[in-house]
Structures are given as C-alpha cells and as structure tokens.
Write a structure and sequence with these properties.
With 213 residues, this protein is mostly helical. It contains 8 helices and no strands. α2 (25-56) runs antiparallel to α3 and α3 (61-97) packs antiparallel against α4. The protein is flat, with a radius of gyration of 24 Å.
C-alpha cells in the first residue's frame, strides 16, 4: 500500500511540474478551456433543462430525464469544443504572427462558431439568441463610449424595455410561429392558459384539468 501511495505522489509531482512548464502553456490552456467549457455548459443547461422539461414537456419520467441529460450533454460538449477550438486558434495565430491582435479573436471565434454552433438546433439557437441580446447591448454601450452616438440625457432602458415587450407580445399574438419554441411555450402558459378555467382547481391549484369533467 505504501508503494502505491508513493507512486501516486510521484505522479502528482510530475503532473504539477509539467503544468509549470511555460512551453506547454498554450496547449494546456486549450485543455483547461475544454474542461471549463464542459463544466460551465453542464452547470448552465442542467437546471434550465430541468425546469423547462418538467414545466412544459409531457411524457414519462424516464423520457423527461433522458431529455434533460441529452440537452445538458449537448450544451456541455458544444461549449467545450468551442472554447478549446477558439483558444487553439488564438495560440496558433499569435505564434504565426509573433503577437496578439484584435482580429485574431474575431477570426478564431468565427471559425469556432461555424464549426461548433453552425447546426440549427434548439440548443444552439438558444445560445445564439442569448449572445445576440448581449451583443446588441454591448455594441450600444461601445458606440456611446467611442462617441459615435451621443450620451443619452436620460436612461434609455425604460424605452428599450417598452419596445421589446411590445414587439414580443405583438409577435406572439399575431406571428407566433416566428418565435423560438421554448418562448412560445412560456408565453402560451402565461397569456393563453390563463384565459381558461373550469373551477377552483384549475384556477388556483393547477394550470389545466386532467380529468374528464
């Protein structure tokens, strides 16, 4: 047993020494990027898939758990692949040009986005829409910082909130098919299902009756 413990400690010392080697830093950063992408993707998707599946999807418990596991795996895998691809391409470009420039980030992310998130499926669609909203906010702030747009005299957020809610509810009421399926499900629950009830049970306790009354 003692010999096994010594071997393990020696292995850990060798691994720690390898991690301190500067010449391997770029490759190791790619590996850790893969690890962090996988972990973060699972942390983000698992609770979201759990809530959305049990709120809006029908089927057996086994089918629901399988759906949650599949969504979590897909998100985790894609993010791990993207982060490692991005970091690998960043390291390669920096090595080839001898320095890091802003275009490297854009180019590496474009290639990673095309390869990893280019398939139009529910998981990728949600991620892209999430990023799009952040990009629009970020570009708006950058335009003000750079002086391309004058600094607003009043906080524009109330107007933005009004326009966004007005637009999304108009789309839901009259062009529902244009909205992403999970958003349709959420809005159906909030705005359509709240128009229907039969008695106190499906007015306060349940959303819909399951009996044949």
């Amino acid at each position: 047993m003692a010999g096994g413990g010594d071997a393990l400690r020696a292995l850990l010392r060798a691994a720690n020494a390898l991690l301190q080697q500067r010449r391997y830093r770029a490759a190791l950063a790619v590996l850790k990027g893969f690890r962090n992408g996988a972990v973060y993707g699972a942390k983000i998707r698992a609770p979201h898939a759990l809530v959305m599946t049990f709120l809006f999807k029908s089927g057996s418990l086994r089918e629901k758990l399988k759906s949650i596991a599949q969504a979590t795996y897909t998100h985790s895998r894609n993010l791990a692949y993207f982060v490692s691809t991005y970091k690998g391409l960043m390291a390669l470009q920096s090595r080839l040009q001898g320095k890091k420039i802003p275009f490297h980030s854009f180019f590496a992310a474009c290639i990673g986005g095309w390869l990893v998130f280019g398939e139009n499926n529910p998981i990728n669609s949600q991620i892209i829409m999430y990023l799009l909203s952040r990009i629009l906010f970020g570009l708006s702030r950058l335009a003000v910082e750079k002086g391309y747009v004058p600094q607003p005299k009043q906080d524009p957020f109330p107007l933005v909130a009004a326009l966004i809610w007005g637009t999304v509810l108009w789309l839901f009421e009259y062009h529902r098919q244009t909205l992403q399926p999970s958003l349709q499900s959420s809005m159906t629950y909030l705005y359509d299902d709240s128009n229907v009830w039969h008695d106190i049970s499906d007015f306060l306790v349940y959303n819909k009756r399951t009996d044949s009354k």
